[in-house]
Amino acid sequence: MALGRRVVTAVLVVSLFAAGLAAAQERSKGPSGAPGSGALGAGPVGVDGEYKIGPEDVLDIAVWNNPAVSRAVQVRPDGRISLPLLNDVPVAGLTPMQVRDVLTKKLNEYVPSPEISVIVQEARSFNVSVVGEIKNPGRYELKGRATVLDALAKAGPFNDFASRARIFVLRPNGAATKRIPFNYGKVIASDGEHENFVLQPGDIVVVP
User: Fold this and answer.
1) Where does residue 127 rank: exposed (0-12), middle (13-18), buried (19+ CB within 10 A)?
2) Residues 6+ apart with CB under 8 A from 134
3) Between 101 and 192, residue with greater pLDDT
4) Alpha carbon of 188 to those of 107, 148, 169, 185, 191: distances in Å?
5) Which band of pLDDT confidence, cut at 50, 70 and 90, is reported for residue 14?
6) Is the pLDDT of residue 156 over 60?
7) Domains of the chain: which residue ranges?
8) Span 127-207: which CATH code?
9) Which of 8, 91, 199, 207 is 20 to 30 Å from the Cα of 71, by its Cα?
């Protein structure tokens, strides 16, 4: 009898483990088994963890079980994309998740409960500028994740009169512009790596 109870207990534990594993796998999928929602491919990520889509970026838009609408599209210079049924959709300045939400709302008029994923297939709008007391000021196209130090390395070295402690980044923020200080000396110190933040498209690095 004791052996029988141990066998039943073992079977019950294995069953509960299997059920928990299956539930975890289901949670890793999107609703109705669809793939994850908004996502970013190999493109750059902003300081807030979300890439902002810009003109010339290529987006891979997949509508679950709807190949007629699913496709790769390029963002036009006016910041819009064109899709069947939806015509022109403004996407510039939005994150992939926000674009997913916009498309879901619009497509819901034609497709019941659409499941959509948005991936930045090619990030072509990731340009930053470096100006001021540096040897090679100008506009630079960056590939992948890039920090302030990466941009300074491309435009460097510093001129003799550059104020390394007073560098700052100008970042478009809606109708306003945000000013973010950057102390080069502090960043290159042994404990200053966390001060070297990631750039976003349109940032201007100013070296006084």
Assistant:
1) middle
2) 152, 155, 156, 157, 158, 159, 162, 207
3) 101
4) 49, 12, 17, 6, 8
5) very low
6) yes
7) 33-122, 127-207
8) 3.10.560.10
9) 199
| Nearest residue to 137 (alpha-carbon basis) of 154, 161, 124 | 154
How far apart (Å, rounded) are the C-alpha atoms in residues 139 and 90?
A: 25
Domain 33-122 grouped into CATH 3.30.1950.10: yes
Instruction: Say whether pLDDT at 184 is over 70.
Output: yes
**Which residue do the tokens 């290529």 mark?**
58
Q: How far apart are the C-alpha atoms of 166 and 160, rounded to whole Å?
A: 14
Asked if residue 42 lies in contact with residue 144, where contact means CB atoms within 8 angstroms, the answer is yes
Burial class (CB in 10 A: 0-12, 13-18, 19+), 58: middle
Q: For the chain, where are the alpha helices, taking DSSP H only?
A: 2-27, 96-107, 148-155, 184-188
Report the predicted TM-score, pTM, of the whole model to 2 decimal places: 0.54
Do 159 and 136 meet the contact criterion of CB atoms below 8 Å apart?
A: no
Predicted pLDDT at 123: 80
Structure tokens at 35: 């793939």
- d(CA 198, CA 50) in angstroms, rounded, equals 11
Contact between residue 91 and residue 79 where contact means Cβ atoms under 8 Å apart: yes
Rounded-to-integer distance, Cα 88 and Cα 27, Å: 33
